[in-house]
């Protein structure tokens, strides 16, 4: 049935940007400072046939707008922008190219690579100074008018305090693509994130916050398609408002909303990894998909005096111009949309240094940071930056605004080197365990600002870190030239897979030591999905294009004895972290505050219980150290002590618990031989809480073992650490408050755990 559209649009309004339905029609608004005309193109529901082309009748404050009466959600559309094609001046208008609405909230179709997508004639001797007159509509995805409708009435953001946060970085597709217990169409989609088995797994690990790699609709880049590969990671954004269609099992964006609500009901936050530093269209030689054709000179940073060329601080061909108020508005509108329409709890900003760039360079007081931190919605969420890019002065670790957490690659590198056995790393290990105060202790920042990780999506998995001396990226088709060369990895006797039991045992021991260091250090720990059960990528440390078993998480490993043991180990360490507040202090510890007479908040000793001298810190061969932490017990422990006392199960009243500070001893041995450690303090009994030489971290025989003052020496095996405390682990308060599946019933009607 044909649809009758008018020849002219009503004027409409310049705000909000994008396509907005009011029940009687649809308002269209799109920014372009330099266009001379803007056409709205209407398509059939499949997006294959253009039905009508109508000029937007008004332009107000550089926003083109018009109102289409009778239109409704489901309408498929795109834009064509008229204006000068003068690349040397930064203008690349070409009305032959259909353009995706930057505010599109749902896409129809996908990019089909043809020469017609380019604004210039490919292979022309004049390169991008030439002009291409072919229509690109058949090769372009289109936008669909949407109506966001979802019942959030009983949803509450978990609002996990920063110092209690444990992050789990995962890929939407990779985390469930191999889950045979799911329906086939749900595997690798948002629907799988709402599965109770997955949520229970996160709860058992002690995870509080799920960080998802990019979920914005992204482009399958031509250079990958030509090689038979795929853009797996998704760091090539096509639309900042639309969920990636490939992650929708039934095509309904509400699948993501349902997943977020289910995770919230279990007390788990959802953070999105977002890419506002560049777009998918590449350099000035890239295709014309949206921003380039709408207003290249406004949306992108161009070389001053050579506006034909893009500034490439991102390594991806272009850099968004967040100094322009309309570009900044688009980014903030996008963030607010995900926060309000999808109830997202926070954002991790890819190449965050780019977002803080002004014409003079990186500035923590940039327009983007200032606008973000004053926003009444966004400023209350968790904000994390990847604090570097490849531009001049791009490495800005520790220099972001105080509201931000920052990925700490110094933690990653120093911990890897320390546990690998590199020389002169004892001092660096101590700095990282204390939250990298030399980087973050300014402007009233807290230790949680340091996002501590051993492995992330970019680089080796934890298992590969102890299995390969070098990268093995041959499958990427770049002759193994891509990816980092310096990984601070060590294979411990064999490159890759091996049947040698001794090598496997040593690898597992080092893995547990690195996981424990990450989870026990001051700051915010982050785990990479699958690291808790030995996930391997076969030595590939740059699997951005591997949409296959190389990248997908194999849950059979989680069910193996070795995988189950390592997952139990992670749960044990996170329980200790929750139970002892001093492991997540609200201020940087320097040993200057006394918790009790003669008991500072932190102290460092060698294995003989001697304070570490300045010379000892620089001892190149010393690989053993003792960390003593002290702090007041948290309020929940006093309440537990009081309940036990009232029930006749304890002789110690709550007052005694309050009077006795928590004391933790962490004995660390990164050497190749077992070492005897002496206790710096021998008052009272000590309980062995964690032994990384054991598969699950639980001491052999029983949960706790008393070490009496008369035997104040303990042997710590090579490549391991042990944690002692002056009280046992209060499991009643340390285990996650919700048992398996209990969260489904308890929170569906607004109750909180």
TrEMBL record:
InterPro entries: GH, GH13_cat_dom, GlgX_Isoamylase_N_E_set, Glyco_hydro_13_N, Glyco_hydro_b, Glycogen_debranch_GlgX, Ig-like_fold, Ig_E-set. The keyword Hydrolase applies. Gene3D superfamilies: Glycosidases, Golgi alpha-mannosidase II, Immunoglobulins. The keyword Hydrolase applies. Residues 636-655 are annotated as: Disordered. It comes from the Bacteria. This is Glycogen debranching enzyme protein. The lineage of its organism: Bacteria, Pseudomonadati, Pseudomonadota, Betaproteobacteria, Burkholderiales.
